[in-house]
Amino acid sequence: MAAPAEFIKFIDDNANKFIARLGEAVAIPSVSGNGAHRPDVFKMSAWLDGQLKSLGVTTSLVDLGKHVMDGEELPLPPAILGRIGDDPKKKTVLVYGHYDVQPAEKSDGWDTEPFKLVVDEKTGRLIGRGSTDDKGPILGWLNVLEAHKTLGLPLPVNLRFCFEGMEENGSEGLDDLIKSETARGNDGFFGGVDCVCISDNYWLNSRTPCITYGLRGLVYFKLTVSGPTRDLHSGVFGRMVHEPMTDLVLLMSKLVAPDGTILVPGVEDLVSAADEEERAIYEKLDYSVEDVNDAVGAPITLSDDKVTVIMGRMRMPSLSLHGIEGAFYGPGAKTVIPASVSGKFSIRIVPPQTPELIEPLVIQYVEQEFAKLNSKNKLKIENLHDGRPWVADYKHWNYEAARRATQAVYRRDPDLTREGGSIPVTLTFAESLGVNVLLLPMGRGDDGAHSTNEKLDRSNFIEGSKVLGTYLYEVGAIKA
Ligand SMILES: C[C@H](N)C(=O)N[C@@H](Cc1c[nH]cn1)C(=O)O
Ligand SMILES: [Zn+2]
Ligand SMILES: [Zn+2]
């Protein structure tokens, strides 16, 4: 069922106001992975809660307790649970999103201040941390609510919202909340939910909208090698002692090959090879090696074969090295032997891999490799957070509603994709609620989520808001 023309017109007419609201959201540096920003994550929860309330949503902020991050005990940002509509004749859609963001410093290489939304009038880009991941999509839902409230239009479905502030850091506390609420059956917050919609990933390219039925899981490791009680002068102690950095760099070099092969024994064996039928699915997608080169800004794909490249993101596990804490990294030439260094790496996992299967393989291998070094330094390996992979039934009416909505707004069929990123809570929703979960992305493949100069195109924000609203009408029209 098409969305009313007045809804579509309202979104177009109010585009500048919506962009200004996105500017307010981006201005709050709600970085969940840095304790110093924790008050900002709380500020963001209050801002979002206020917006939802002003648009007629009944909300509660659920305290998720405390956690320890980098040795510091911190309060977890609240989950925002919201509800609007309780008509038993209508379907009930649960919307999930996250109001926290990845870290960003201008010195990382941003052309503009990361927490000041810049509207590039020439390109139509809305540039700022969180613009596409995930503040833009969350605000897309606010735009839909505002249109209905202002126009006096009844919503076509009942809506439930679950917004969290820890997604970029393992979604701590949220699984327990979902499980305890679902244990309360129909009296719990999620009682009566018919389907879930998450807008928190990206198109494959910058042309073709998509809907997404899979996510990779993730296991994030921290590998610490420590030796002396303090940093040392390399001229005084070099070649006298075992150096933690030397050990760590050797260990990290044993994790992944330059061609992307994961070197931890047993990890890749769990994944079956794609047959011709499956390869044909990837072949049909509107995607090319050039799209990757354009998105990353250099011709550096691991293969020249489109299907191999795309399978690397959608259905293969990957291991990425992220950084080394404690190492010297500033300008100049400091002649230091760092006392303790921690390497961070993560493995994106696909079915049938689970964190429970992967973690022991990694720990055993790293310990074996460390033993081979005959070092007198100490090794510690920790799992910082993890999440399981997820694949959904894309023949479900929830996907059909999203396909029709995308068709109506963009006048073209969406690609059907699996995403390489992770949203840990997705599988929890699918399993605990026992309903279909859909990913309906707003942004493009070149948005630079987690990167410098993250952006959301103005047209994706505005047309994407129309898609979200139209999707609700399509769900409302489903008879199943
Ligand atoms: C896909 C989603 N927008 C996202 O970026 N998820 C993160 C989740 C995460 C896990 N650890 C840190 N962040 C991702 O896939 O990296
Ligand atoms: Zn993210
Ligand atoms: Zn996200």
From TrEMBL:
<feature type="binding site">
    <location>
        <position position="133"/>
    </location>
    <ligand>
        <name>Mn(2+) 1</name>
    </ligand>
</feature>
<keyword id="KW-0645">Protease</keyword>
<dbReference type="Pfam" id="PF01546">
    <property type="entry name" value="Peptidase_M20"/>
</dbReference>
<protein>
    <submittedName>
        <fullName>CNDP dipeptidase</fullName>
    </submittedName>
</protein>
<feature type="active site">
    <location>
        <position position="100"/>
    </location>
</feature>
<dbReference type="InterPro" id="IPR001261">
    <property type="entry name" value="ArgE/DapE_CS"/>
</dbReference>
<feature type="binding site">
    <location>
        <position position="168"/>
    </location>
    <ligand>
        <name>Mn(2+) 1</name>
    </ligand>
</feature>
<feature type="binding site">
    <location>
        <position position="200"/>
    </location>
    <ligand>
        <name>Mn(2+) 2</name>
    </ligand>
</feature>
<dbReference type="InterPro" id="IPR011650">
    <property type="entry name" value="Peptidase_M20_dimer"/>
</dbReference>
<feature type="binding site" description="in other chain">
    <location>
        <position position="200"/>
    </location>
    <ligand>
        <name>substrate</name>
    </ligand>
</feature>
<comment type="similarity">
    <text>Belongs to the peptidase M20A family.</text>
</comment>
<dbReference type="InterPro" id="IPR051458">
    <property type="entry name" value="Cyt/Met_Dipeptidase"/>
</dbReference>
<feature type="domain" description="Peptidase M20 dimerisation">
    <location>
        <begin position="213"/>
        <end position="371"/>
    </location>
</feature>
<dbReference type="InterPro" id="IPR002933">
    <property type="entry name" value="Peptidase_M20"/>
</dbReference>
<dbReference type="GO" id="GO:0006508">
    <property type="term" value="P:proteolysis"/>
</dbReference>
<feature type="binding site">
    <location>
        <position position="450"/>
    </location>
    <ligand>
        <name>Mn(2+) 1</name>
    </ligand>
</feature>
<feature type="site" description="Important for catalytic activity">
    <location>
        <position position="233"/>
    </location>
</feature>
<dbReference type="Pfam" id="PF07687">
    <property type="entry name" value="M20_dimer"/>
</dbReference>
<feature type="binding site" description="in other chain">
    <location>
        <position position="422"/>
    </location>
    <ligand>
        <name>substrate</name>
    </ligand>
</feature>
<feature type="binding site" description="in other chain">
    <location>
        <position position="348"/>
    </location>
    <ligand>
        <name>substrate</name>
    </ligand>
</feature>
<keyword id="KW-0464">Manganese</keyword>
<keyword id="KW-0479">Metal-binding</keyword>
<keyword id="KW-0378">Hydrolase</keyword>
<dbReference type="GO" id="GO:0046872">
    <property type="term" value="F:metal ion binding"/>
</dbReference>
<feature type="active site" description="Proton acceptor">
    <location>
        <position position="167"/>
    </location>
</feature>
<dbReference type="GO" id="GO:0070573">
    <property type="term" value="F:metallodipeptidase activity"/>
</dbReference>
<keyword id="KW-0482">Metalloprotease</keyword>
<feature type="binding site" description="in other chain">
    <location>
        <position position="450"/>
    </location>
    <ligand>
        <name>substrate</name>
    </ligand>
</feature>
<dbReference type="InterPro" id="IPR017153">
    <property type="entry name" value="CNDP/DUG1"/>
</dbReference>
<feature type="binding site">
    <location>
        <position position="133"/>
    </location>
    <ligand>
        <name>Mn(2+) 2</name>
    </ligand>
</feature>
<feature type="binding site">
    <location>
        <position position="233"/>
    </location>
    <ligand>
        <name>substrate</name>
    </ligand>
</feature>
<feature type="binding site">
    <location>
        <position position="98"/>
    </location>
    <ligand>
        <name>Mn(2+) 2</name>
    </ligand>
</feature>
<feature type="binding site">
    <location>
        <position position="335"/>
    </location>
    <ligand>
        <name>substrate</name>
    </ligand>
</feature>
